[in-house]
């Protein structure tokens, strides 16, 4: 077994960034760029006007230019006639004021008398309707300060101010070097055991948004010599190099020793999670940052170190905006590090609710789904549910208030809805959704809960949980539940009894899921206990996850809906139809987000989509059942 | 005289936009783009995962892969030895889980015994430290909905989800056609009477930020046939055409008649100011928008019509964020139209203050300086000072709270300060600054106010205006005031008496300006009244504006500082030195923005810059004089 780098430090984020900044100088020089190419570039110094605008007095109106003195005495009782080319000239807006004229009379106030002769009934005062020299811009005036990112409207002022070229910061060139034997860059090369390089594109996109020039290198193998060569080349061709993966202390993590050999490791290991195994290095005065290989870690380490570094070189601070909300789930955290939790936000009954997403460092989808980031500081054990928290927003707030907030049971139909209207859905099972509704943490809970006595779905459960609140059940779909097994059913699974066979590996849904309830209901009828079934305690949270586990041979059987089995090409043993409905507080029925939802599921579009997927019946979809008060 | 299009309508904005939308169809088709080129593109439909991620079970840790069953029974008392290649395999994070293994033990929990043999003291459970298939992404899962603008983190999910190309909206192609005989596109062609085309670059920049492809055409002359040809060509080559200028009802405004001849004018004339003479047209199903020629009008008409139109085609709504503040000046408006007022914002004593900028439609600098836009609705006569208003922000709020808010007298040194620290300055003269301080509308007022009895600057005035409040005067500069006259003094102006000569045209500063006070003080000593001086009532608001008026021969003389005269190459007749100081409430002396200012004006950098400009003495710069309470 090869040597391992055992030690990596746990330096607080602020301290690490400060230390690293002190080790580096701004590598950027200025370059002169034609004014029309300066959009989004950053000024190197102040930019001054080379000429005034207007540069000559000109007419601010369509009309006639006159010498004001010549018009004195004109009034309603004593109209005055003026001759063209003698007393006046016609001018349009923007025209130069003719020689020996100091005033403009609007065309509306001019009465034509004959060819070349007009009449006025009011005297003009001097400089009336004339744009004076420098009214907009005065030569020598500072148009833009240093460190200013040029916007479209700035272009107008620069051009009007007679500026032909601007000194701006050259673009920062950043090399991106993915590492690892298992990394490939093309889908075609993605064989079993290989991992596709998604990190480089994310980091490249973030750098592009900051105005950098990027170059992504071919993945470097886990070989110290190859890595040394790649780092030297990457640094030679750029101002800065970012390596991805291999930054930790594992057997094949050569990055830290290579940087040490070529220059200096300023920091290795920071107290943030995800993102701990980050390397902040310096080689020949240039910055080399080693980002961890897990996608979320790489993202947060970039945001924590690379972004502020480049921003300070650009003299920019593009802070994220902050919004307050109430945490819907307890988040525990270690005292050791600052933890960055991806969250979604939604506005429910005038309150902003903050719901944590999956915290795994490998889950790229948690970054896609995140509306913001909640920071749990070092030396905190976490935050309790119900506490007010501040969230750094990743999306504009107004897009979030449009959202229908859905918490509860999962079904593929939620994807169809989410494609057509703003929605955030969290999958915690039917009971979890009911609990969230009780606490006003969502607008709507999709549920499918069977009453063990009556066999009727949903209604009695709602009555039990909301004895004092009027609720509405928006009828959803009837969906086919059954056992999913591999194509051709190689292990001959036909009944719930078969699940208890020793050689059968089951994959289960989490507690509180309607499908879990259905399983337990069926097992109890047969007198089978969970402990009798291999894999009973292996839980996943969606039908699709069950189907994938069976399809990828991680399990032999699972209970779930037909649509999931069908989409993964599995065989399906029908158990029966169940009602998957949408529970909302009655008072929210008129909410525009709920209305938009009802309109959508009643639309022909929705029916077509569901029919295509298969395994659903939609007779009552969109009907409203009132529950509570009237039911007593 | 040519024919004029007399009638243009005054349609409310909402109505005009709605009407125009109903006339147009979304011209955009989809195109398939390689996944790595999709940054900032907009999805045409939902994007689904083509593969799961991970696609095979893999190790979530560095360690050894085992079959969990094989480890049962291991504990501290009964350590268990395992053989490599028989009982376990070494794995690194991300490695494929080897055949017949279902669990990973972290390397930290593994004790090497001999070559190929290790010991464990705890049994593994199945799927421990294993990333299961689809843990991040499940095949068939919706990765991105329709109408989604692809962000860097989305690229990661697309690539991990096995997506190789994405259907996105093709880029909207927009032609930009400036019109007008006087318009030129290059500085070299900018002769007297010509106007440089700044609008095209601003509109191009705004379209670029929206992801459009743009083409700017050569300016089209005011000729109906040329315009017809240019519009037909521009529409043929693009999805949409924007013409600039010529949209009104003037003699040479041919745009509306040309569009009418080629297609349909849907709206001509909307009730917004600036922006009224906007044309919303349609030719062969395509959109042609005629923007007004004044820069600010063009900008707002673009924001009001073109932007929402394109956004709706993109399925995006990039709303500006809103912030509340207190208006520092009364704004009057006409009942007829919605008026868009450019404003600056600043945070003073915990209150946000909103100050209107120059409202002329031609002032590009008002767009550059604006922090936001205040909308005064139709049917409103305006808004009183002190009222709370909502402002659409053009800049992020956190950059605004950094600002030192300065209201008062103008000097060139404010440019030097503004280049080195965040600052907003409004030039309303010394007394205007004192008034703003009384109402807590700024942090600091630059003043130069002479006491007519003692000849001492500033201190007695401050005592008079702030009898009950402790103030501090930050000493600024002594600056040389004098009469500015044209190079060589062709009219022989040497004294204030000369200003009263019949052939002399004067240019004055506004009431409340310290320089105006100085003039009136000197004139009263000589028994000259303002009415005796030509141009006494022609007012501008800065020293530079006075200098420009003299230099451009709009006036023969003006009173102002040496630096302004010098920068415009004027002759200068010295009147004497005056004290230009900075007044702040004593309680604000410790404010970080005020401190930053004091540090800056005491710096060697500042002294060098001021010496270079000339006409200043800096002996006491940055000294603090306390006024009030202790002075009673």
From TrEMBL, chains A, B:
Q: Which residues form a coiled coil?
A: none
EC number(s) reported in the record? 2.10.1.1
- A Pfam family: MoeA_N
UniProt xrefs under InterPro entries: MoaB/Mog-like_dom_sf, MoaB/Mog_dom, MoCF_biosynth_CS, MoeA-like, MoeA_C_domain_IV, MoeA_C_domain_IV_sf, MoeA_linker/N, MoeA_linker/N_sf
The cofactor(s) it depends on are: Mg(2+)
Q: Which Gene3D superfamilies match?
A: MoaB/Mog-like domain, MoeA, C-terminal, domain IV, Molybdopterin biosynthesis moea protein, domain 2, Molybdopterin biosynthesis moea protein, domain 3, Periplasmic binding protein-like II
- Per the record, what are the reactions this protein catalyses? adenylyl-molybdopterin + molybdate = Mo-molybdopterin + AMP + H(+)
Q: In which pathway does it act?
A: Cofactor biosynthesis; molybdopterin biosynthesis
- Which keywords does the record carry? Magnesium, Metal-binding, Molybdenum, Molybdenum cofactor biosynthesis, Transferase
Q: Which residues form the MoaB/Mog domain?
A: 175-312
Q: Which residues cross the membrane?
A: none
Q: Its family?
A: Belongs to the MoeA family.
User: What exactly does this protein do?
Assistant: Catalyzes the insertion of molybdate into adenylated molybdopterin with the concomitant release of AMP. May be involved in the biosynthesis of molybdopterin.
This chain's protein is named Molybdopterin molybdenumtransferase
């Amino acid at each position: 077994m090869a040597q391992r780098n055992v030690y990596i430090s746990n330096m607080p984020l602020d301290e690490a960034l400060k230390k690293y900044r002190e080790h580096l100088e701004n590598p950027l020089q200025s370059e002169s760029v034609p004014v029309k190419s300066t959009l989004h570039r950053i000024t190197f110094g102040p930019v001054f006007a080379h000429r005034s605008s207007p540069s000559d007095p000109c007419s601010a109106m369509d009309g006639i230019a006159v010498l004001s003195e010549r018009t004195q005495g004109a009034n309603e009782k004593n109209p005055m006639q003026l001759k063209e080319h003698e007393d006046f000239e016609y001018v349009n807006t923007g025209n130069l004021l003719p020689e020996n004229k100091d005033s403009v009379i609007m065309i509306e106030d001019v009465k034509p008398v004959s060819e070349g002769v007009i009449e006025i009934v009011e005297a003009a005062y001097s400089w009336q309707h004339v744009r004076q020299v420098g009214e907009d811009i005065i030569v020598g005036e500072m148009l833009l300060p240093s460190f200013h990112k040029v916007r479209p409207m700035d272009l107008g002022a620069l051009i009007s101010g007679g500026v032909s070229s601007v000194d701006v910061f050259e673009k920062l060139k950043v090399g991106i070097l993915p590492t690892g034997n298992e990394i490939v860059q093309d889908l075609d090369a993605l064989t079993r055991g290989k991992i596709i390089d998604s990190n480089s594109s994310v980091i490249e996109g973030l750098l592009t948004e900051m105005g950098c020039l990027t170059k992504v290198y071919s993945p470097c193998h886990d070989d110290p010599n190859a890595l040394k060569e790649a780092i030297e080349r990457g640094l030679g061709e750029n101002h800065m190099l970012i390596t991805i993966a291999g930054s930790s202390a594992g057997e094949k993590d050569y990055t830290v020793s290579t940087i040490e050999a070529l220059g200096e490791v300023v920091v290795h290991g920071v107290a943030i999670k995800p993102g701990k195994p980050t390397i902040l290095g310096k080689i020949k005065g240039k910055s080399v940052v080693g980002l961890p290989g897990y996608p979320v870690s790489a993202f947060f380490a970039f945001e924590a170190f690379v972004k502020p570094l480049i921003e300070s070189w650009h003299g920019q601070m593009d802070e994220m905006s902050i919004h307050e909300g109430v945490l819907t789930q307890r988040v525990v955290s270690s005292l050791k590090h600052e933890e960055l939790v991806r969250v979604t936000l939604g506005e429910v009954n005038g309150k902003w609710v903050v719901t944590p997403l999956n915290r795994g460092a490998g889950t790229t989808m948690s970054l896609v789904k995140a509306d913001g980031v909640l920071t749990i500081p070092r030396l905190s054990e976490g935050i309790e549910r119900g506490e007010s928290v501040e969230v750094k927003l990743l999306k504009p707030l107004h897009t979030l208030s449009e959202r229908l907030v859905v918490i509860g049971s999962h079904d593929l139909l939620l994807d169809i809805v989410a494609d057509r209207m703003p929605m955030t859905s969290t999958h915690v099972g039917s009971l979890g959704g009911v609990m969230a509704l009780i606490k006003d943490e969502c607008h709507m809970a999709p549920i499918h809960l069977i009453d063990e006595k009556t066999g009727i779905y949903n209604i009695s459960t709602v009555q039990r949980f909301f004895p004092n609140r009027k609720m509405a059940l928006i009828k959803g779909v009837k969906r086919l539940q059954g056992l999913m097994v591999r194509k051709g059913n190689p292990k001959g699974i036909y009944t719930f009894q078969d699940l208890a066979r020793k050689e059968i590996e089951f994959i289960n849904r989490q507690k509180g899921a309607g499908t879990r309830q259905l399983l337990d209901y069926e097992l109890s009828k047969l007198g089978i206990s969970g402990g009798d079934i291999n894999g009973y305690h292996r839980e996943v949270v969606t039908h699709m996850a069950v189907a994938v586990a069976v399809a990828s041979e991680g399990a032999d059987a699972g209970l779930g809906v037909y649509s999931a089995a069908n989409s993964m090409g599995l065989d399906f043993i029908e158990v029966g139809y169940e009602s998957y409905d949408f529970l909302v507080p009655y008072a929210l029925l008129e909410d525009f987000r709920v209305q938009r939802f009802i309109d959508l599921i009643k639309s022909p579009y929705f029916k077509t989509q569901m029919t295509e997927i298969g395994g659903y019946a939609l007779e009552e979809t969109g009907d409203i059942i009132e529950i509570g008060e009237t039911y007593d």
